[in-house]
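Our consortium's second objective concerns turning raw sequence data into structural hypotheses that experimental partners can test. To show how far this objective has progressed, the report includes one record in full. It was chosen at random from the queue rather than selected for favorable results. The single chain below, 145 residues long, was entered without modification.
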Amino acid sequence: MKKQLIVAASLISIALAASHVQAAEPLEFQKVMKELGKNMQVITDGISREDWDLVAKTAPMIAEHPQPPLAEKTRIISFMGAEMSRFKSFDMQTHEAAHDLLHAAHEKDGQKVIDAFQKVQSSCLGCHQTFRSKFKEHFYGKPGN
């Protein structure tokens, strides 16, 4: 009996240690976010130089950004629970605004480009302010900004 308790305690310790290591590993989702951030910077540069071709080339990278692998997506959905629809709503707002940005860039209409980009930025900010800290705390064990 004592031997079984020691084995059980050891297995639980190993499982907890393994889950902690897994939690500290960056999610693919984090890589997607970093790439989106780079694309946002490229668009900012394109707008500042009125390089509408660069903006048009980059906007689809935001609108149609990669999705995390299915297993990771399942973990995120499980974590989000009832808030998943709100999370998805921010994502859809971002996709739509990035498509508007693409069309405005094709029209070479600077004001429309700026207006569409502002909508992209607002949807990103709304999502980040609502979810980023929760994600960082849950998936990485640290408070986030």
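The partners drew two points from this record. The first helix runs from residue 2 to 24. The CA atoms of residues 7 and 74 lie 31 Å apart. Both points have been shared with the crystallography group to help prioritize constructs.
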